[in-house]
Specification:
The strands form three sheets. Strands 3-6-7 form a three-stranded parallel β-sheet. It is mainly α. The radius of gyration is 26 Å and the shape is globular. Helix content is 57%, strand content 6%. It contains 21 helices and seven strands. The longest helix is centred in the middle third of the chain and has 21 residues. It folds into five domains: 48 residues; 42 residues; 132 residues, Nucleotidyltransferase, domain 5, CATH 3.30.420.10; 37 residues, no CATH class; 54 residues. Helix 1 packs antiparallel against helix 2 and helix 9 packs across helix 10. It is found in: Nucleus.
Length: 383
């Protein structure tokens, strides 16, 4: 299998090394073709770079054109790093679409050399952790192990974990072009819809409302909550075709309150103390991505009185969503394309339903083993 989507500077670095080893241009070309396939570099270009390196050239990047200032400014480098921090699963192709003014090879060099990132568990992380990063990892691992030895599996049963994985607007547009060709939505339109969906607005059409407000019976609302008590005011309002304030008032009238994301009767805690005891003891394990550490999220978690486990930066090794759930899902998603949100949601629901509880439990119950590895590796990355 050949290496997919290589950066130009990567191939040139290989050519430079092979020339240094004394390989002939023909041998170099054969090596490059074996490693990168037909999309790597053509014969003429390989021979040209062999000649350049043999004549003493050391740089693997294109020469700066005269009269043109460098387009890679500190501001752009900062924007690239911010994009990676916002979504560490971005690919070079997706970043290239976000920064079209930069060549793909220069973008790859900026990520790997200037910013010092590499891929681990499909995320961009620093190539070398600082001593402080490693210390944070070890201290967190030791604390987790201490609590596990003290409370055993009860500690693991209290852990709830979660994360999200995104497909970027650039990738969505590329898939649309592959599927629909000239009839695909424009890149701008695609990004507009992408923002809308990311804001949890999944309406595909703008529906005009007219006439008197729709009325509904209490039993309709109760039936919806019986089917799924985790539905939001917005979701309930859309189903019942009323605004959120109307739903909120009716829920209060029914004596319903929201507890840990679920609508439950206000008197439930008094009627079922064991239920309350079990559900009040929630320990949340999620990474330190910006959406997770935002002030509104922290404030909301405080109102729930959930304990949040510390998660050191750059630690996909101990995030169950990364090393267990998404890795398995990505394998099943390989080369699969969806033509609508409903189709994607149906597939994901089906995939989750196909897994028994032992699959999800395993992602949590291997944590002690991974914490041990964190400590024994002195906080370094591990597979």
């Amino acid at each position: 299998m050949s290496i997919q989507s290589p950066a130009k500077c990567e191939i040139r670095s290989v050519i430079r090394y092979l020339v240094w080893k004394g390989k002939t241009p023909v041998e170099v070309y054969n090596e490059v073709k074996t490693a990168y396939g037909d999309k790597g570099m053509n014969r003429t270009s390989v021979f040209k770079w062999c000649r350049e390196f043999k004549n003493g050239r050391t740089s693997v990047h294109d020469d700066q054109r005269s009269g043109r200032p460098s387009i890679l400014t500190d501001d752009i480098v900062e924007k690239i790093e911010n994009a990676l921090r916002d979504d560490r699963r971005l690919t070079v192709d997706e970043l290239s679409a976000m920064f079209p003014q930069i060549s793909r090879s220069l973008l790859h060099e900026t990520i790997t050399e200037t910013l010092g990132y590499r891929k681990l568990s499909a995320r961009w992380v620093p190539k070398q952790l600082t001593d402080q990063h490693k210390l944070n990892q070890v201290e967190a691992g030791q604390e987790f192990l201490r609590r596990y030895k003290l409370h055993g599996d009860e500690f693991l049963r209290s852990i709830v974990t979660g994360d999200e994985t995104w497909k970027s607007a650039a990738e969505a547009h590329r898939i649309l072009v592959q599927t629909y060709g000239d009839n695909a939505l424009s890149d701008t339109t695609c990004r507009d819809w992408f923002r809308r969906f990311k804001n949890n607005d999944f309406e595909l059409e703008d529906k005009e409302r007219c006439g008197a407000p729709k009325k509904f019976e209490d039993k309709e609302l109760e039936q919806l909550l019986d089917e799924d008590p985790s539905q939001t005011l917005s979701e309930l309002g859309k189903i019942l075709q009323v605004d959120e304030s109307t739903v909120s008032k009716r829920l209060k009238g029914l004596g319903m309150i929201q507890k840990q994301g679920h609508w439950v009767p206000r008197a439930l805690k008094e009627k079922r103390p064991l239920y309350a005891q079990r559900h009040d003891k929630v320990i949340l394990l999620h990474d330190n991505a910006r959406p997770h550490v935002a002030k509104p999220v922290k404030t909301y978690l405080e109102t729930l009185k959930w304990e949040v486990l510390p998660h050191p930066p750059y630690s996909p090794d101990i995030a169950p969503s990364d090393f267990h759930l998404f890795r398995s899902m990505a394998h099943s998603l390989a080369d699969r394309r969806f033509h609508s949100y409903e189709e994607a949601q149906k597939w994901i629901d089906s995939w989750i339903a196909s897994k028994d509880m032992s699959f999800f439990r395993r992602g949590i119950h291997v944590l002690p083993e991974r914490w041990e590895k964190v400590v024994s590796s002195d906080g370094q990355y591990f597979k």
